[in-house]
Amino acid sequence: FLASARASCCSGRYQVIAYDPATDFTIQPWMRDAVGRTQLGDDEVIVGANVLANDPNNFQLFDNTLRVVGQFDATGSTLDNAVYMNFETAKKVIDSSLRKGLNKYSTLETDRIISSVMVKVAPGYDAEAVAAQIHQQVPGVAVATSTRMVSGIAQSLDSTSRTVAVLIGVAWGVGLLMFVLMVAERKREFATLVAMGAHRRMISGIIIREALGVNILGGVGGIIISGVLLVSFSGLVDQSLGGGFLVPSALTLALLALGALASVGIVALVSSWIA
Question: pLDDT (tens digit, 9 = 90+) per residue, 49-68?
Fold first, then answer.
C-alpha cells in the first residue's frame, strides 16, 4: 500500500486541503497537469476555480499572508472551493482559525490531524476486497473505492441521458404530427389558392416558409429560456444529478445552440415534405 494523508478544515467558503508530497499520488498529478509543478513551499498555495485571488502575492487566510502559485480549472465539485497547501502551511492556517474561533472545532492537535487517507492498491490485489478489509479492521472510518464513485456518477449520467433522449424523441414526434395535422386542416385554403392559379411549387413554398419560421422562432425562444435557466440554476442541477456539473464554455454553448436550430430546421423540412 502507498498511503497519501490529507488534512482538511473549513474556512468559511473555502476548504483547506493539505497533502503529503512524499506519499501523495492523487493531487500532485493533477497539479502537474494544471500548473506544471507538484511541490509547494511554505506559505504557497494552489486554489480551486471558485477561489478569488485578486492579488496572488497577498492571499489572506485567517490573517496569514499566502502566495497563490496556480489555480485549477473548474471541476463542478466541491474541489473548486478548496485551497491546497503543504502540511506546515496548513498547521499555521488551522491554528489561526482556532485562535479566532472560526473553526467548526474548538480544539485540534494540528500535528495529529488526518481527515482522509488515499490508498493505492498494489498490482494483483482487488480494490473492493482491500476496502472491505480496511472497513472490517479499522473501526470508525468510511471506505470508498474510486470504482464505486465513478460508476455512481456514470449511472446518474446514463439515466439523465436516457431521459433526455426520450424527451427529444417525443418532441420530434409531437412536432411532426402537429404540423401535418395543421396542414391537413388547411386543405380548403390551399384548394382555393390552386383554383386561383397557384402552382404546386408555390403551395409547397408557403408550407415550408411557415414551418421554418415557426420552428426557428420556437427554437430561438427555447435556446434563450433554457440558457437562462441552465446558468441561473446550475447549482440545483448539480444537486439533482448528484455529481460534478459544469456549464459549458461560450463556444460550446454557441455550437449547441446552432445544433438545436439545425435540428428544428430539419423537423420543419421533414414535416413539410410529409404534409
Answer: 888 877 888 888 877 888 88
What is the 8-class DSSP label of residue 111? G
Those residues whose C-beta lies under 8 Å from the C-beta of residue 49, and which sit 6 or more positions away, are 71, 72, 73, 74, 75, 80
Burial level of 119, CB count in 10 A (0-12/13-18/19+)?
A: middle
Taking the complete model, does pTM exceed 0.85, yes or no? no
Q: Rounded CA gap, 137 and 118, in Å?
A: 16
- Candidates 103, 59, 246; CA nearest to 46 is 59
Facing residues of 156 across strands? none
pLDDT of residue 166: 92
How many Å apart are CA 172 and CA 89, to the nearest integer?
A: 57
Grid coordinates belonging to 222 = 427555447
CA dist 272 and 275 (Å) reads 5
User: Residue 66, Cβ neighbours under 10 Å: how many?
Assistant: 23
The residues pairing with 44 across neighbouring beta strands, listed in sequence order, are 67
Q: Are 130 and 119 in contact (CB under 8 A)?
A: yes
Find the angle CA(215)-CA(218)-CA(219) to the nearest 5 degrees: 80
Residue 239 belongs to what H/E stretch? helix 234-241
> pLDDT digits over 1-40, tens only?
334 444 445 444 677 888 888 888 888 888 888 878 778 8
Place of cell 473492493: 128
- Residue 232: its H or E element: helix 200-232
